[in-house]
Protein: Hydroxymethylbilane synthase
Amino acid sequence: MKNIRIGSRNSPLALWQAREVARHLQNKNYKTEIIPIISTGDKNLAVPLYEMGITGVFTKDLDVALLENRIDIAVHSLKDIPTKLPNNLSIIAYLKRDFPKDVLVKKESSKNKEHHELKIATSSLRRRAFWLKDFPETEFCDIRGNVNTRLKKLEEQDFDATIFSQAAIERMKLKIDYEELTNLIPAPGQGVIAVVARTDDAEIINLVNFINDDETQICVETERIFLQTMEGGCTAPIGAFAEIIGDEMRFRGRICSLDGKNEIETDDVFKYSSEENFGEKIALEMLKSGAQNIMNDIKAQ
Ligand SMILES: NCc1[nH]cc(CCC(=O)O)c1CC(=O)O
Structure:
């Protein structure tokens, strides 16, 4: 039987996610091999991602490995995958979403501080802007590195708290206290593990198909088309979260100016269909009702 070569970034979270995909495949008696690949985004930890000016810093090196046939599939956090993939690469499966939310982690000595008193370390434009909307006085600083590195910096450096994806903390089984941030709409695709392969590799596509979760796919494809329609190639604070409730979809989307002062938000419940993706329609309506102005301001800065 074919040995499936799984490419992964070298971080503990990425490797956990790759092993999760491997476990599904092994359950069906497929042989797997995990091949760690150091990504551009992991090599340069000094610069915030939004300043690197390129998308796909975490995925590019694995894309090349796929196209050079050094691996058969690449496993990624969906939110790290740009909305447009290189020619001949496609997302071929989404694992069931587990934890979509962001969480706040405070250091022990700051645990009694209120939200507006915190100095927060994050390099996410979205987390910063959305937080500033509710607590405009908050001080922020940049932080990079994997989850463990960021937790170590939290203990050692001069800030009170940082914001993580809950999925990261739960997958790594970290024993730390956190607070769920229900107001902070997650990044499109957050909390979802995705598998990328060569579009013309029918054998792998058929073989991996069984791990796809259909509900997750419908939700994240809506979120990602929303993102793609909104951003037009520029990094902005954009959140999107879709969930299926009965035979309806609830979709929450938000775009915010960098300082959190202007924002356009939507919270809709509608009958979804697998033929029509509502993400584009919702984004176009929001662009008309003010989101375009916010995007233009962000581009000008
Ligand atoms: N930006 C880095 C990143 N990309 C995916 C995850 C976690 C897994 C996920 O949310 O799917 C993280 C860490 C974080 O946001 O704290």
User: Anything to note?
Assistant: DSSP finds ten helices and 13 strands in the chain. The domain at 102-180 is CATH 3.40.190.10 (D-Maltodextrin-Binding Protein; domain 2).
